[in-house]
Amino acid sequence: MSSANRPRFLFAAVFITAILANSVFADAFDFSYNFANQPVTVTGTLTGTQNGNFVTDVNVTSLIINGYSVSGTIYTSQYAQGLGWINSGQPIVSFDGSFNNFGFITSDVTIGDYNNNDGFYMITFNGVHEADAYHFGGGSNVLVTDAPSLNANWSLTKSSLPQSTSSVPDSGATLAMVGGLFLTLAAFRRRIAA
User: Fold this and answer.
1) I need a surface site. Which of 24, 71, 122, 194 has the fewest CB within 10 A?
2) Is residue 66 exposed (0-12), middle (13-18) or buried (19+ Cβ within 10 Å)?
C-alpha cells in the first residue's frame, strides 16, 4: 500500500469501527394478553434489557390488537397516579405481570397528544390490575377493559432471536469518538512525516 493511501485506509477503518461499535443488540421478548371478559387478544414484540423479573429500556417493535397489526410509531410510557401518563419513568414490564405499568400507544400522550387510534396498556395500583386495549378504524373497532387477578392472562417470554437496535450516543460519547479519531490521524500523519 502506498504511503499516500495509508491515511485514507486508516480513516476508513476507524470510521467503520465507530459505526459498528455504535450498533447494539438488545434482548427481544414476545408478549401476549388474553382478555377474560371478551375474546380479544393482544400480542407483540418488544426489546429491552432483562433485570430479574423486569425488562427495562423498553422499545415496542410490533403490536397486534385482535389480529390488527398496528403501524407507525408506538410510544411507550408509564402511568403515575394523579399525574397521568408520564415519560420521566421507564415503562415497567414484568414477566409475572405483578408490577406491569406501561402504555404502548400510537401517539405521545405524555405531551397531551390523545389523537390516536391504537393502544394497549396495563397498570397496577395497590395490587389492583387493569388492562385496556383499543383499535378504531379499518372496520374492526375494539374497545375492551379487564381487571384480571394477578394478570393471569399475561405472558412475556424471551425470544430466541436478538433484535438489532441502533443506539444514539450521547454528546460525550460522540465527542470522545471524534477526539480519538483526530488524535489517531494526527499521530499517523506525524509518523508518516518522520
Assistant:
1) 194
2) middle
CB-CB neighbours of 129 under 10 Å: 21
First to last CA, the chain: 18
Q: Classify 7 as helix, strand or coil.
A: helix
User: What distance in Å separates the CA atoms of residue 191 and residue 194, rounded to the nearest whole number?
Assistant: 5
The answer, as to whether pTM is greater than 0.70, is no
Q: Which of 164, 165, 155 is nearest to 43 (CA)?
A: 155
C-alpha gyration radius of the chain = 23
CA distance 5 to 18: 20
| Residue 77 exposed, middle or buried by CB count within 10 Å (0-12, 13-18, 19+) | buried
Segment 35-55, tens digit of pLDDT: 988 888 999 999 998 989 999
Distance of CA 191 to the CA centre of its chain: 45
